[in-house]
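Assemble and predict.
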Amino acid sequence: MHRYFPHTQQEIAEMLQRCGVSDLRGLYSDVPDELLLKAPYDLPSEKSEKEVRDYFGALAAKNRHVDVCFAGGGFYDHYVPAAAQSLIGRSEFLTAYTPYQPEISQGTLQYIFEYQTMMCRLTGMQVSNASMYDGATATAEAMMMAVAAGRKRRRVLVSATLNEAVRAVVDTYARYHGVTVHTVDEADGVMSVSRLGEMLDEFGDVAGVIVAQPNRYGIIEDFSGVADMIHARKALMIMNCVAADLATLRTPGEWGADIACGDAQSLGIPLSFGGPYLGYLCATQALMRKMPGRIVGATVDSGGRRSFVLTLQAREQHIRRDKATSNICSNQGLMTLYVSVYMSLLGAAGLREIAWKGHQCALYLLESITAAGGCRLKYPSRPFLNEFLLEMDCDVDSFISRSLEAGILPGIKTGHNCLLMAATEMQTREDVDRLVEIYKSMAR
Amino acid sequence: MNREIYGKLVFELSRPGRRGYRLPDNHIDPCAAPQGGEKAPEIPASLLRQTPPDLPECDELTVVRHYNNMSTNNFGVDTGFYPLGSCTMKYNPKINEEMAGHKLFASVHPSTPETSVQGCLEMYHTLQAALSEIGGMAEFTLNPFAGAHGELTGLMVIRAYHDSRGDSGRCKVIVPDSAHGTNPASAAVAGLEVVEVKSRPDGTVDVDDLRPLLDNTVAAVMMTNPNTLGIFEKNIPEIARMVHEAGALMYYDGANLNPMLGMARPGDMGFDVMHINLHKTFSTPHGGGGPGSGPVGVRAGLEPFLPNPRVIKTDGADGKPVYKLSVAPDALGSVSATLGNFAVQARALSYILSLGREGLMEVGPLATLNANYVKESLRDDYLLPIEGVCKHEFVFDGLRDKSEHVTTLHVAKRLLDHGYHAPTIYFPLLFHESLMIEPTETESKETLDGFIAVMHDIAREARETPDLVKSAPHNTPVTHPDDTAAALHPVVTFDQL
């Protein structure tokens, strides 16, 4: 038997006897013969742990080694605290199922409650759910929430400055869910507020408006008056935000948004080639019962002790089936523990220090690379925190490959001649200088 | 598990001025930038937050002890037996965790150009190919993040397929009345109308009830096989033929794939589209509710409709394979910003490699053996509504002797006192007192015998000292949390406490 299976041949024989069959095949007497596999899978043989390690080591070696990452686009290279990594590995957390039995799941339930509280404080909203898959699906769910709250309204406006990958997922959900999506044009790198006003007037039946902060170019947008404009038309304001930045930037709550959503990878979650990350979804109190997914609530037990349970489950698929607010069941649960530990270690001061370090490094990067000539800020009048769009005269692809040869990912190509560059607390002056040298050697 | 509740919330441990971090020095002197460079505009104060968020201020040990103590109020597969039906709570091997956290993968940005991430893409492709072999499908996408996300993606594949043929009147999905709640919910999100088909007394789909439902408005029939009662749908070849004749597609919900490993493949049963829960059949940990992974497979001919991007293997100039991202015009769109939960996929591949074909062939039969053994050992005390062999799981309709009004909920809570996780209760909805047990293949005969003995004890207690069972649990960190009050007056943040 394989090392994960405890059965001895004698035990199998005893167990089969109790089941009244003579061999394991006998347990499949109900499966039509033509469906039974006639040969083993065409897959490799059992491997030892050493061989598995060697296999993954060889796979990893096929990636180009990258030391320094100036790529962002919604996902950022942040410092990963050892304590956060270690605590999510606690097997009582890791190997537990969804906390449907609260008596033996207080650990899971409590960290979700703490997570909900921290996310509300970060976004300035009143309620948070227990997570969505990623920022893109969280935004799509926010759209469906707005449509559900808007009763007969099935039209949603989306700022042209929303991250392209998020937009693609929103479009997919909209297409199949029967929602019409219109783009609110951008002007000089930000959503055109006047165009938004026109569109709200033009269509009387907008359920929600999705805006981005910081936007797909890294620009911090000014949403003065936007919430009033949207609310005057009885639509909901949905803000897609980079979670970590909200310790520093004016919050969705302060802007008057109804729903805040996005990815919380920026709260120190390892990049890990795309996941697991963490979609977050927060809203005003009024929208609590329209929220998708799980929510944890506090209560007391029979001994008067504070305890936590999954609550408002009548919204969910296992109760409401096709009338549920969403189909989500499994979420990114363990990652809510990760970011709760992360935020507990960093606190507000740490998150703000990270933001300003990234800002400082981004300013230094911008100043250094533009000093070499042949490139410039695409939107020079727009403020940014740690990410900006650089317009380049040289071939952007060549710059990316030359940098990668030196172990630096310089950013994400955007359009034909632009590079989206991000900085965090992880890059040093030396890293920036090295990148600028590569750029100079190309420009020559 | 600790029997004492650890009572504090992290906010109550916070003290102004404490911190649990130190950032690296980046050696950047803002004044040292080269002359002549471009300066960014200042950020106006109106765009900044005026008050910092009220997050905890804690030193590292306080944080570590807090969460460690909380973990002792939790129960996982590593703690004890977890016979939760339909959830496949098998052992999550440790090597998988090590591979998932591999340092060289952990730092890879998802937007890295494909030529620089050939290792990651090869991993994706290798796993999708292995799942295709196991599922009997042509190709899998690993992009969906969870089972329900996979269902949604699979239904979108089906809609995209019908649309591509100009067959746009197919607006219904047929699901058995025993289906998981996610099936109808996913159909609704995908813009499809749900039609329920009845089960027969033996729990399988009633073919005579299904037949008249099949017409040119049906997009797909969604089924699990074995179904939620752990019963194999014997008529599946006939059902597939009927569904295909009506022009609809067969969707396989992979929640119950585990007992089929080594025995039969959904593709061979006539299914066109399927999803797999890597966090069930392929041993990735449930993480208290996620992250999971819900790859979607399709039969030959449906690949162009899979979500963007796909990972394609091509031949390089030197004969070595080169992996590329492919975006297809017919694709349903994209369902994720990245290629899914990569580190979860890594765990599943590690598991498949560790088991190898020999181990994978043993999974299904041993899972089925364990389930039948428990079923046959307990049917004297618990009511077995459906006779015959089950697959990976089975359902009791409560105790046989209900004279003392001891319910399934009472039995489940009493199990907690004995150090077992409860089975799934009150699902499926076909019976009033459903108690759904799935032991999985990684549990030993001693473990099962221990569980069986306790279940017999509880049945005896239900006759002799029923109040002891009805008032359970007695021995857990908290007892009877008031969920009615929680729903009536929701307190969902610390600020509302």
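The domain at 97-353 of chain B is CATH 3.40.640.10 (Aspartate Aminotransferase; domain 2).
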